[in-house]
Amino acid sequence: MIELKVPLGEGREYSVLVGPNVRNELESMLPEKSQRVAIVTQENIGISVNLEIDNEVFLISDGEDAKTLSTIESLCRSFTRWGLTRNDCIVGIGGGVVTDVAGFAAATYHRGIPVIHIPTSLLGQIDASIGGKTGVNLPEGKNLVGAFWQPTAVLCDTSTLNTLPEREMLSGYGEMAKYHFLGSGNLDGLNLEEKIARCVEIKTQVVASDEREAGTRAILNYGHTLGHALETTENYDLRHGEAIAIGLVFAAELAHKLGRIDQDRVEEHRLVVDQYGLSSMMPQGIEPDVIMEVMARDKKAINGLTFVLDGPDGVEVVTGIEPSIVRETIHHMDKR
User: Fold this and answer.
1) CATH topology identical between 2-164 and 211-335
2) Catalytic residue among 23, 178, 224, 299, which?
3) Which tens digit of pLDDT belongs to each residue from 13-56?
C-alpha cells in the first residue's frame, strides 16, 4: 500500500491510499463524530464495504445522465428522510460520475458534510476523486455547476480494477497520458499501482499550490477544452479519457500553429496517446461551428477562447486565441 498526503491551506490535509483492498481501511478513516454513513453508488459497480457503523446505500443511475441537479435533489431528499446529519459522512463508491455526484451532494447537503471517495475506475483513481472538484452537467455543457469540496480521504483500491471493462481502462489511460506532459516523465517502467500513485502525486502538488483553481491548477485541464466539447456534442458516446486523448493532440497541434512548440513535440503527443492504445482522430461527422460554440462556454473561458497549451515554459493557460486559428486546427485534425 502507498499512502500520499494532500496538503491544503491552514494546516489541513487528507490521505490518499493506493493499493489492493485499501477499501477495508474505510472504517478507520471515518470522522470520529460520524454515526451514519450514506453510501452513494451505482447498481452495476458491485463493490461493497463492511462497516459496523449504521449505513445505507443510495443508488444513482449509470453514465453521465446521472450528473444532473435532479439527481442531487433526489439524493439530498433521501438523506433527509433517512436522518443524515452534518456530523455524519457520505461515501462515494464508483467511477468519476459517482465521486462527482457524491462530492457535490456532500458540499451542498446541510451546507457541507464529510465525504470519502472509493474510486473504482482508473480514471477516478488518478484524477476525478482527487482534489475536491465536484459537479454536475447542464445541457449546455459538462461540469458547469459544482463546488470545491475536499474529501476526508480517498481510497484507491486497485483490486477494483481487475474486473473493469477494457474500454473503461482505456478511458483512464487518456487521463494518464495527460500526466506525461505535466511532469510525470515516462511511466513505462512502473507497475500499475506505482503509475496511479505517481499521477496522484502530481495532482496533489498542483492542488496544494492552488486549491480553488485561481491560477495554476487549470493546467490539470490539459486536453479538456476540446475533450469536454467532444463529449457534449457526441452525447457522451465518447468516454471521457477517449475524448481527452484527442484533446491532447489537438492542443499540441494548436500550440504548434501558434509557434509555441515544434513538430517533434506534436509527434511526441501522438506517440504517447498511441502507446496507450487510444485514438487521436476526430470523430466522423463533427460540426466545427458546434464544437467552437461549446468550447467558448468552457469554464476556463474568461477572455475569448481559452486553452491549456504546451510551450517553451511548459503547460500553461492561454487566453484570447483567435477563433480562425482554432477553426483551422479543427479542420487539420479532421483531415488526418
Assistant:
1) no
2) 224
3) 899 999 999 999 999 999 999 999 999 999 999 899 999 999 99
pLDDT digits (tens, 9 = 90+) for 103-138: 999 999 999 999 999 999 999 999 889 989 999 999
Question: Is there a catalytic annotation at residue 332?
Answer: no
Contact call for residues 326 and 284 (beta carbons, < 8 A):
no
Instruction: Identify whether 217 is a catalytic site residue.
Output: yes
Identify the burial level of 302 via C-beta atoms within 10 angstroms of its C-beta, where 0-12 means exposed, 13-18 middle and 19 or more buried. Answer: exposed
Nearest to 279 by CA among 317, 230, 313: 230
CATH topology of domain 2-164: Rossmann fold (3.40.50)
Query: What is 211-335's CATH superfamily?
Result: Dehydroquinate synthase-like - alpha domain (1.20.1090.10)
Q: What is the pLDDT of residues 235-293, one digit of tens each?
A: 668 889 999 999 999 999 999 999 999 999 999 999 999 999 999 999 888 888 889 88
**What are the extents of the domains in the chain?**
2-164, 211-335
Look up 242 and say whether it is catalytic: no
Catalytic residue among 10, 50, 111, 166: 111
Catalytic (active site) residue 221: yes
